[in-house]
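Recap quiz, item 2
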Amino acid sequence: MALVNEPILEYRPGSPERAALQQELKALQQIEVDIPLRIGANRIRAARQFDCVMPHDHAHVLGRFHCADAEHAKAAIDAAGKAHPVWSRMPLEDRARVFLKVADLIAGPWRARLNAATMLGQGKTAHQAEIDSACELIDFLRFNVQFARDIYANQPLSGPGCQNRSEYRALEGFIFALTPFNFTAIAGNLCVAPAIMGNTVIWKPSERAVYSAHMLMDIFEEAGLPAGVINMIPSDIPEPVSEALLTHPDFAGLHFTGSTRVFQILWRNISNNISNYRNYPRIVGETGGKDYIFAHASANIDALVTSMVRGGFEYQGQKCSAASRAYIPASIWDEVVSKLKAQVATIKIGSVTDFTNFMSAVIDDSSFANIKSYIDFAADSDDHEILAGGTYDDTKGYFVQPTVVVAKTPHSKLMSEEIFGPVLTIYRYEDAELEAALEACDTATAYGLTGAIFATDRTVICYLTERLTHSAGNFYVNDKPTGAVVGQQPFGGGRASGTNDKAGSMWNLIRWTSPRTIKETYNPATDYAYPSMLPDSSN
Ligand code: NAD
């Protein structure tokens, strides 16, 4: 059967999915969950706990998770080691059955509950949760199974009298999956992709997304995942856990998504330990972005403005792919600015339980403080001017209004640094200075994750696509730079944005296998000499 992407439910008023989701939202807010560590078959409670709160109402505690320390990390290494011999030698189709069942559980009985957890715990609207914890995660699970089959089917040629084959072994050791707060689907995929290839995994979810992570562990268990294949050890203090894992000889790979800063710390730690490992570890990291929209004078202005709003402000700009800088030519500037201001003025922001809101709160106090610091900087700086928004309030939830800033220079702070919040900075360039604007777009930041161009003139589309070759691993023409779909737009970027191993494709799965080539000869040679060694007289 051909693979299809999971259909996105709409949650219209009166629909069954809306009623089911509202019921789960209500139910989850009435209980507080105790979240243990999951090591092998054990649920472990630790001395220290950390609250899972709702970003839009931070006094509301959804649950408490137990915090792992270095000893728990060592126990998880043991559990992953114990599960490895059976899991890694299990036929692919048996491993696949587990993850296909996980997909079915999420598509069916768990859909509303996992979406509700993602909404309440990570501050997503119904639509944002649906495209993440339902559709993208289901797609990762089903497509990864197919990508694994495709890899296994890739076999070498055989010659006369011999047969060759490639055996796709799991890596020898454990995989450390270290995941970010912003996508339940990414968190799931970073564990599942190596596990499908036969690896065992130690998962440290983000301390700001343990609430949905815990639910995922329940779903894995219900689908029959053997104990020890994925071990979850959350912690509010990640360093000791990470240190225990990265210094162990069985550390075989890092599957990371998060900030560039943390990825570089981890890479350095791995380098420092390189002579202690049994194997050279695989390092896969998808990291930060400063994603752009570059408009040409021939752009369709309504499509451009809608992409700036959706790309910049959906999920409060907390997507690695969020549009956070835009280049607009002078000839269309006034119209773009007036339409942008008009649209931004209509955006409703508030609780995720009110389905009429387009945006909710940012994830936590440190994120709020960071975003606020950029807005305050813009307000005080001669280089920037705030065009819309610019206000914030964390009294009840961590709310930041959608903010549009004009940058007067193309390399200004807000045009260069990742903010990870609802702040879109725009720069006006003279139409005659297209080349200088493209140069700025290509060089203003260290990142290279996503980018979008808007133009209708084909010659221009060709030129911009070529000119911006290395500026983005995911490049969009007349569309917003967010919303990659598994199997359609394999995701990842270069430069400081990561190793570009393309989540949602076989390129990622290939990193989690160590092929063994097996040659079998039917009639092995029994004489070491070659015909070329015979003396001339024998002719
Ligand atoms: P983060 O880097 O703060 O955290 C990621 C994970 O690393 C978390 O589990 C965290 O607990 C852990 N961590 C933090 N400091 C650590 C340390 N010193 N040692 C070991 N572990 C540590 O990222 P975040 O705030 O959760 O996520 C946002 C970031 O992720 C943004 O930069 C965003 O661009 C990036 N992101 C990238 C992609 C992508 O595909 N490129 C996707 C999603 C998010």
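Residues 178-183, 186, 204, 206-207, 238-239, 242, 257-259, 262, 265, 286-289, 320, 418, 420, 449, 491, 497-498 surround nicotinamide-adenine-dinucleotide (CB under 6 Å).
The chain has two domains: 31-287+498-515, 291-477.
End of item.
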